[in-house]
Structure formats: C-alpha cells, structure tokens
Amino acid sequence: MAFARLSAILALALAATNVQAAATTAKKVTCPTGQQTANAACCALFPVVDLIQTQLFDGAECGEEAHSALRLSFHDAIGFSIHGGKGGGADGSILAFADQETIFHANGGIDEITDGQTPIWQQTNLTAGDFVHLAAAVGTANCPGAPRLEFKFGRPAPKAPAPDKTIPEPTDSVSSILARFADAGFSPAEAVALLASHTVAAADVVDPNIPGTPFDSTPFTFDSQIFLEVLLKGRLFPGKNNASAPGEVLSPLAGEMRLQSDFAISQDPRTACFWQAMVDDQLLMMAAFKASMAKLQVLGQDTSKLVDCSDVVPVPKPFTQQIKYPATFSKKDVQIACPILPFPNLATVAGPAPTVPPVPGS
Ligand code: HEM
Ligand SMILES: *[C@@H]1O[C@H](CO)[C@@H](O)[C@H](O)[C@H]1NC(C)=O
Ligand SMILES: *[C@@H]1O[C@H](CO)[C@@H](O)[C@H](O)[C@H]1NC(C)=O
C-alpha cells in the first residue's frame, strides 16, 4: 500500500518533467493578429482570449470571475460517466442549458458566472463547450503559480443538459466523492490534484451570510497553501458569531472557510498521502493539476477531432517562494494523516493570526 502510493506520487512528479518537455519546437504559423500558433485554426481564438480578458476577467485578473470560470469547467465536465448515461461531459451544456443545470443544488451560485459568460460567448463563434473550457484555461492563467492549461478546440454543440446529481457536494462522504470521480474516470490521486483549484477559491452560498469567503489565505495565487491550511487544527467558523453551515467544518483562521469534503479527503487513508505530498511542492501540484485538468476538459469528447490550441492560453506568472504557515501557526498545529511521507519544514509569517479578507464580488 505504502509503495503503491509513493510510486503514484513519483509518477506524477515524473509527468511534470514530461509535460515540460512536450512543449515542442514544432513549426508555427503567424496569425493575421500577429500572434504565433502551431495551427492556423487556432488564430480565431486570440481575439476571443482578448475579449474574455477584457469583458469577463476585468483585464486579466485572478478574481472572482476567474475562480468561477474554473469551477464552471468542473461542473460542466463532471456531468459524465465512463459507463454512459450521465451527460456529454465537457460539452458546455452548463452554459447552453444554464436554465436547467443552474437549478441543481450543487450548482448554487453558478448562475452568476453563466450569466456573466453568456453575452460574451454570444459575441464569439465558439460552441458552448469550447467557450467554457477556454475561459477556464484563460482565467486560471491569470493566477500566478498556475500551470498553463491545455486547450483543445472543436467541441460540437451540446445535445442536452447533464442530469442532476453528478457533481460532488461538500457534505458527501469521501467514499461517495471518490466513487463519483471513479465513475467519471478519475483516480483518487487525480481527484486530489483537481482540488488544487481550491487554492483560488471562495464560497458564496455555503454560508450565504458571508459571500466570498476564501478556502485559504491566498485566494489570488495558485500556490499550495490550500493543502497546508486544510491540515491545520480547526478553531472556529467564519460565519457571524461563529455560526456554521452544512458542508463546512472548523477552520484555522478567521475569515476562512474549510469545506468538510476537503478536510475529509485530507485525512482519509485513501487520499491523505496525495494531499500531503502537495504541501510546498509547487511543481508536483502544477504538473498533477495540469494533467488532470487536461483530462477533465475533454471528457466525453472525441479528441481525434479536436485541434491542440494550447498555445493561445496565456503563460501564467510563476510562484517561486516557499509557502509559509499563517502567523502563529507551526508544525505542532498540523493534523498529519500521512505518516509515511516527511512533512516539509516551513517558516511562519510574522505577527498576529490574520483575518482573511473576503474575495470581492464582481
Ligand atoms: C470533492 C469535490 C468538490 C467539492 C465537494 C467542491 C465544493 C465546492 C464548494 C461548496 C464551493 C463553494 C461554492 C460557493 O459557495 O460559492 C466550491 C468552490 C470552488 N470550486 Fe469546488 N468542489 C470540488 C471540486 C472542485 C474541482 C475538481 C474544481 C476544479 C477543477 C473546483 C473548483 C472550484 C473553484 C475554483 C471554486 C471557487 C469558485 C469561486 O470562488 O467563485 N472544485 N467548491
Ligand atoms: C463569426 O463567423 C462569421 C461567419 O463565418 C464571421 O463573419 C464573423 O467575423 C465571425 N465572428 C468572430 C467574432 O469571429
Ligand atoms: C466555535 O464553535 C465551535 C463549535 O461549534 C467551538 O468548538 C469553537 O471553540 C468555537 N470557536 C470560537 C472562537 O468561538
């Protein structure tokens, strides 16, 4: 068991180097707009990327809309089963059939981003699937430290809305979450890798009294802080007068929310080592997230018919520092659930324990 886990972690680390080497030196075409790409069919996307950055992401910010665009790509794609009968996957049905999919309980708050994307999508000639998954790749690229996600172009229009009950909820057990991911084709390691997304995330509807409550202290940076902070001993709820809501558990910091599902996954023997391995391993996290997102964003698609337009995705700024414990915290506060891996030595931010400010709405 221990060896199986470690070798899976190692395989992810090796994938990191392969991903970088795959950025080949293939011949490029120069588009009418001046940018270069490996395939002329991708030229049509550069103006769309500019449109998305200006109109949706307030000028290339890693703000609420970028965060929500990433969440939207997950909620769209996960409506899929490798056994069939659960929707078209990464087909943009969540945007094209927003009136039906946004009513699902797990899609609480999603209408804000579908409402935001629809008028911009309609200015383009892209299918809903291409638009949703391009917007997610571009939004993620606005967050320093993120990997440059792939983008495959040419999804057909979605045929129907995805059925309800395909999207995991924070109140779900680890077994049911892992079963849902497995049904969509993802291993426990891949599920944990996808949860790196919660490093650029905040909740609006878990506790509707405190919209924009972040999951870690650095919601504008794609660092591994989420993987550290979810392991810290919980002390309070961010709600008014320490009030809690279903789906959250005690968080270590004022103003921060911890999802019950993130905490359970960090502690479960099936996933704890994958979780802990991400702490302060920026390159492992980037590579694992990139690989799992590449899979997620083409779920249900015939990839032989898609064109690789990854080079239209902006190159994210790097994050090269070591992460730190929030002020007043140290190793003694870590709830270690993976005894077979060493825990990294990290410095602590100086000063009193912080109150994490909310992520501003649009
Ligand atoms: C175990 C599976 C997951 C559960 C239970 C879960 C649950 C949640 C919940 C409850 C929220 C807050 C929603 C709100 O109140 O506004 C949220 C936010 C978010 N989730 Fe997840 N999530 C999961 C997996 C994922 C995955 C796989 C991704 C992407 C790859 C993702 C990306 C995000 C992002 C980016 C946000 C922040 C949205 C924003 O700030 O506007 N989540 N998630
Ligand atoms: C959309 O396609 C039409 C017809 O092919 C074309 O005239 C128009 O310029 C395209 N619009 C964009 C934004 O690419
Ligand atoms: C908040 O409430 C929880 C129980 O619901 C309790 O364990 C914790 O000590 C409280 N924290 C504060 C700071 O009041």
Radius of gyration: 20 Å
List how many beta strands DSSP finds. Answer: 8
The share of residues in helices is 25-40%
State the name of the first-level CATH class.
Mainly Alpha
Identify the CATH architecture.
Orthogonal Bundle
Query: Which strand-content bin applies to the residues?
Result: under 5%
What small molecules does this complex bind?
Answer: protoporphyrin IX containing FE, 2-acetamido-2-deoxy-beta-D-glucopyranose
Widest sheet, order of strands: 1-2
Q: How does the overall form come out from the CA principal axes?
A: globular
Q: How does this structure look, described?
A:
36% of the residues lie in helices and 4% in strands. It has a single domain (2-333), classed as Peroxidase, domain 1 (Orthogonal Bundle). It has helices at residues 2-21, 45-56, 64-77, 93-96, 98-101, 110-121, 128-141, 174-183, 188-194, 225-229, 260-267, 272-277, 282-296, and strands spanning 29-30, 36-37, 152-153, 202-203, 213-214, 248-249, 258-259, 307-308. With 362 residues, it is mainly α. Helix 1 (2-21) crosses helix 13, helix 3 packs across helix 6 (110-121) and helix 3 (64-77) packs across helix 7 (128-141). The N and C termini lie far apart (46 Å). 48% of the residues are buried. It is globular and about 55 Å long. Bound molecules: protoporphyrin IX containing FE (HEM) and 2-acetamido-2-deoxy-beta-D-glucopyranose (NAG) (2 copies). One 2-acetamido-2-deoxy-beta-D-glucopyranose binds at residues 235-237, 242, 244.
